[in-house]
TrEMBL record:
Swiss-Prot/TrEMBL keywords: Cell membrane, Membrane, Transmembrane, Transmembrane helix, Transport
Protein name stated in the entry: ABC transporter permease
Lineage summary: Bacteria, Bacillati, Bacillota, Clostridia, Lachnospirales
Family, per entry: Belongs to the binding-protein-dependent transport system permease family.
Entry annotated with the keyword Transport: yes
Domain ABC transmembrane type-1: 67-251
Membrane topology: Multi-pass membrane protein
Localization terms from the record: Cell membrane
Keyword presence, Transcription: no
Transmembrane segments: 21-38, 75-100, 112-132, 138-156, 177-198, 233-251
Gene Ontology BP annotations: transmembrane transport
GO cellular component, one term: plasma membrane
């Protein structure tokens, strides 16, 4: 038994000895090696051109003047849709958790709609709102609202009932309980909802930009797919991934700032 414990301790020491940037470098190198293998494997070479071809396509898209237009157009739709989703999800989630009539009326429909892929209701949005920016924002808003509303709602429902009862005993009103008890206790769930909302906004982008968009990362991927122009299509997919991981890092930084009091478990 002691021999097994010493072996586990030695493995943990080796893992701890490598800094975070070292693991990041190892992860990057593993990805590059896998990418290279996919680029030379006959069955996958056409779908995964290697780095030089993707870099060349980057230069081509910049020279054509479409990369910045596509990036900025998508970011406008994502940011607007996400903001609308957040500012509508927070009050509705709190009302669902606090008032049973609201919960009984609203929750079944939220659970029903959130299981429908965004691509399925894109035609309905286009018929109702036309083409252009508006339907893109509506699709992203709806997708982000649903996931954030459910996450925040679960957070409010998981607040320790003892804290609420103690606040009531001390004479706190509903407003005081919301501000001083429920909101601080729900902050980790709100940040998790933000993280999920950003992810859903990006994954919904291609569906959102199938609403007659004239520019955008998702629209360009669909256009390049139709012409089987793989290197720039892979480039745009990588750009969306970079946007996602950058957003994740920013949210983690904010999470440390706002929930530094919360205990975390080291594995």
């Amino acid at each position: 038994m002691s021999f097994g414990n010493s072996e586990n301790k030695k493995k943990k020491d080796i893992v701890a000895a490598i800094p975070n940037w070292g693991w990041l470098l190892i992860s990057f190198l593993v990805a590059i090696v896998l990418w290279f293998w996919l680029s030379v494997n006959p069955s996958t070479a056409r779908s995964f051109p290697f780095l030089p071809e993707v870099v060349k396509s980057l230069k081509t898209m910049i020279e054509r003047g479409v990369l910045w237009n596509d990036f900025s157009s998508s970011m406008i739709s994502v940011i607007l849709g996400f903001i609308l989703g957040f500012i509508t999800a927070v009050p509705i989630a709190f009302m669902m958790a606090w008032y049973r009539p609201v919960r009984y009326i609203v929750e079944p429909w939220i659970q029903f709609i959130r299981n429908i892929p965004p691509l399925a209701y894109v035609p309905l949005v286009v018929i109702a709102a036309g083409v252009g920016r508006k339907p893109q924002v509506i699709v992203i808003w709806l997708a982000t609202f649903l996931i954030m509303c459910v996450t925040i709602y679960q957070g409010v429902r998981n607040v320790d009932e003892t804290l609420i009862k103690a606040a009531r005993v001390l004479g706190a009103k509903d407003r005081d309980i919301f501000v001083k008890v429920i909101f601080p206790a729900t902050t980790p769930f709100i940040i998790t909802a933000v993280r999920l909302g950003v992810s859903v906004a990006l994954t919904t982008l291609i569906a959102a930009e199938s609403t007659g968009a004239v520019a955008g990362l998702g629209m360009r991927i669909r256009s390049l797919n139709n012409s089987f122009d793989v290197p720039p299509m892979l480039l745009y997919i990588i750009i969306i991934g970079i946007i996602g991981i950058t957003s994740e890092k920013i949210i983690k930084y904010l999470e440390r700032k706002f929930t530094g009091w919360q205990e975390t478990r080291e594995i």
